[in-house]
Amino acid sequence: MEKNNKLSIVTKGFFKENPVFVLVLGTCPTLATTTGVIGAVSMGLAATAVLICSNLVISLLRKLIPDKVRIPCYIVIIAGFVTIVQMLMHAFLPDLYELLGVYLALITVNCIILGRAEMFASKNKPLDSMLDGLGMGIGFTIALFLMATIREVFGAGAFAGIEIPFLKDHTVSFLVQSPGGFLVFGLLIAIVTLIMTSLGKKAPELGCAGCPAAAVCNSAQGKCPEKEVKKGEAENA
Amino acid sequence: MNRLNISVSPHFHAKATTRSIMLDVIIALLPTTIAGVWIYGLRSLAVLAVGIGSAVIAEFIFNLIAKKPCTVGDLSAVVTGLLLALSVHSNMPLWQVAIGAAFAIVIVKGVFGGIGQNFANPAITGRLLMAVSFGEMAKAAFPVADTVSKATPLAVLESNKMMFENGVYFIKNWKGDITGQTDLLSLFLGTRGGAIGESCTVALIIGCIYLLARKVITWQTPVSFILTVFVLSLIYTKDFNMALAYTMAGGVFIGAIFMATDYATTPYRPWGKVIFGICCGAITVLIRFWGNLPEGVSFSILFMNLLTPYIDKWTSKKPFGGEKQ
Questions:
Q1: Residues B243, B151: contact at Cβ < 8 Å?
Q2: Cα dist. A103→A18, A113, B243 in Å?
Q3: Does the residue B121 lie in any domain?
Q4: Is the peptide bond before B10 cis (omega within 30 degrees of 0)?
Q5: Which residues on chain A are in Cβ contact (under 8 Å) with B137?
Q6: Domain boundaries, chain A
Q7: B169 contact A CB<8A
Q8: Does residue B73 lie in a domain region?
């Protein structure tokens, strides 16, 4: 990462490395909370707050955390911040707290936060990590907002709870059900990929570093059984 | 002197094209279409027109946007639109029919690569989109002349409240009051509540015979599907006439004949077709008797569509001298 490119660290999360549509992380909250715009945006903002804080702390502690137990350490840090956000929301925004329900607590195991901790914060300086958290969080929020807008407007005939005159009588409630969520998700990924390829930008090859399961995955450690088989075949030939 | 022509194989071509097969399907659907319009009135013509029209327009526009050769001429979009319109009732709001047809063409067929590449039957999937989205699907239309019926035979199948007495089935609501009646003859002729194309069993059978004679479909899937529904209903109800009524009361015939025989989404080997039909029938009966929904034909076909690659794998023939897999 170039040193004087702080702005690009933030902006790459918006579109080029959008966590939802390009990195395909955090699919569970994306599908679950995008039935309405209000829930989606507040979910995005809550995750952003946690992401910035956890990236900062993980980046600060990156030399202290032993490599073998890094995932539990990350989880503890993230869970701490999630609990703070949850308590704040419960105290000051009880309606939103009710709306998000279990998904607020599930931010703890949100792939985006764990993924950025593993991919970015554990290798970069605190300020960069915070900016990365901010960019990714905003990208997540944008993605959720887009999906929720489509689903709520056409599925429920409303926008942020405000009914739209013509559409409210012509709803396709499939869109606010879970299969509709998958459909909109897939179509948006397709559109984003289409825009990326037409701009000539390839989606970044992420490799195994971003995968939280890399520690236990054989292929990430070069022990993939398929590769061995192929190697064996090559030797036989 | 004989002229010797040298050319590469194949030397003989079958005359069947996508267009001719689709035309055969449309011809086979004509009896049930006419019967549907006859039974449910002119409103069903509007539904059919919107279904076909929006399917064709959706196909045209999608090909235009995706920069693909225009495939409207192969009539497959017409068949999809027609089947979809036949599988809904005649009082459906027209915009919902249009959305269902466009979804079937664009999402189920177009996005996956066009004709032959779809993972599931477009008409079935479009119908299910409408079933899960629009409450209007649950209400059924009734024969124009019929003023007695208040519920479809199928709407009461789930709770098994169809009562058989002297050849007439009394349909009861959940309180036990008789709300309508039907008999085997009206189930056979289609003068009962239901979707435009599903009710007239005799017209569907005529279409099936035509398709079999033209070798567009084979007998395995329809026969095994319908027989399975009949036999399992017989086991469940322990009454021959009741089982007959259950077999004819829903969309079993149109599903088994026209939707479970789609080339792209059903097995290609004979035994695969039998497995496909039996599983469809079994799932239909399971959903009808123990599921939440009154009818299970569409879901069973969609589910088996997804399993088709595996059935093909199990039943594929090992080539002579071929290696063991």
A1: no
A2: 21, 14, 48
A3: yes
A4: yes
A5: none
A6: 7-206, 210-237
A7: no
A8: yes
**Chain B CB contacts of A169 below 8 Å:** none
Interface touch B107/A177, C-beta < 8 Å = no
Is residue B203 one of the residues assigned to a domain?
no
Q: Vertex A226, ends A221 and A228: CA angle to 5°?
A: 75
pLDDT tens per residue across span B144-181: 444 344 445 554 444 444 555 445 555 544 444 554 55
Model confidence pLDDT, tens digit, residues B201-260: 899 999 999 999 988 899 999 999 999 999 998 898 787 877 888 888 778 899 999 999
Q: What is the pTM of this model?
A: 0.79
What is the ipTM for the molecules in this complex?
0.76
Q: Can you tell me the distance from the alpha carbon of A186 to that of A181, in angstroms, rounded to the nearest whole number?
A: 9
Interface-testing mutation among B97, B133, B136, B302, with chain A (most A C-beta atoms within 10 A): B133
Domain-embedded: residue B95: yes
Q: Which residue has the tokens 């989404």?
A: B265
DSSP B182: E
Cis peptide before A66 (omega within 30 of 0): no
How many domains does chain B divide into? Answer: 1
Range of the domain at B30: 18-137
